[in-house]
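Lecture 7, part B: from sequences to assemblies.

Below are the input chains for today's worked example.
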Amino acid sequence: MNKIPKGIVVVVVVIVVTAFVYLREVAKVLQGWRPEAAPATEVAMQKPKEVSAVVSYEVPGEKIDTLRFVVTLDDVGAIEQIQTLDAETNEVPEKKKEFNDQVNVMLKGRKLSELTAIDRVGQSTLTTNAFNEALDTLKAAL
Amino acid sequence: MVQFDFQALGTVWSVAIDSGVVSDDLEAKILQYARDFESRFSRFLPGSEVNAFREAKAGTYPISPEFARLLVRAAELRMLTGGIYDPAVGAVLESAGYGAQSGLAPVRHGDQLPVWSISEDTVTLDGPVAFDLGGIGKGYCIDRIADIIRAAGHDHFIVDGGGDMYGTTKADGRPWRAAIEYPGRPDLAAGVVELTNEGLAVSDSFRRRWGKWHHLIDPGAHRSVETVVGAAAVALDAWSADCMTSALFFATPEHYREIARQLGSSYLVFYADGRAIASETWPGELF
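Predicted structure of the full complex, as structure tokens:
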């Protein structure tokens, strides 16, 4: 089964949240580095800055995934942008997801009698009941 | 392996417990729960909790904790499907010819669905309401029976409620293998899933066109290819899977992912032309 155990999801969420909180603290600290308003006309300028942190997590049985958080600061140290990217592709992960999230197939079906080691058959109750009731009528019509 | 079957909620249930001695007491407890559940939540029984408001005036009424749990979920599904799924349809189904004719008082006429809301352990209505938990009740009942079996000390079992089910693993750790019936073709399987502490629900829409299901046997009948004819879902419990299949019939495709995410379920949707859509997370093979 490729289900991600809840424990892993919790760990990932903790890492991601911690990373965000860390970055926000970093950003606050950077903002705090803004010099005090100097008398009259002088205001010290900073260069626009980009800081990033990479978080990686491992899902058992699957490859390691990495996310890159990028915080962009403008020339007075205010946060301009926060981005979350796939660390390998530097793309927003969600974009890829949309193409892959569904599988479109034509189903032909396979004879139940040909399948091996089946314990149960998942089926719709009411239709099966109705169909069984109709079988007598169907047989009589043949 | 011990297996016992019984009739409940209008179908044949089958419980298989792999390993351990199964006491008669456990079987009795399971039967009792299923019968109680049916008498409390079947819309065909006049004294059921879901029929308690057929003649009610607008107002707020206390309800049992279990009814509240079911209605909270139903309200969630109503929201996720944009209001198209709504259990307050009991009267509508009856007027379409699908219901108990046993002298139940008519609810109200017209196409307007009653307005209702749930809060903690009370329900608020704008008038008489007949609730139909047919789309979500069975899954809930399956899970509660699973709880009863677990509480009796059995870890390896499968509870099959007439086609919807919940399975842990077999005693040797292997999953329970369930074939999924091809909609409308009882002799074919559309796929196989292996259940490991998971619930499976399989539903088809034929029953919702009650009176028109003869299309099954009429090869000349035209059916729109956009018509959803069946749905299946696998989730961490039977209730979530059951809710997922119901939602799939009532929601438009762009909402499937969101609903699946909320319910923690994977899904499979069958169309009339043999095409199927499966969520990325769908486990098992498809044929």
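Note for the exam: Strands of chain A lie at 49-58, 64-73, 79-86, 102-106, 110-111, 120-122. Keep this in mind when comparing with the next example.
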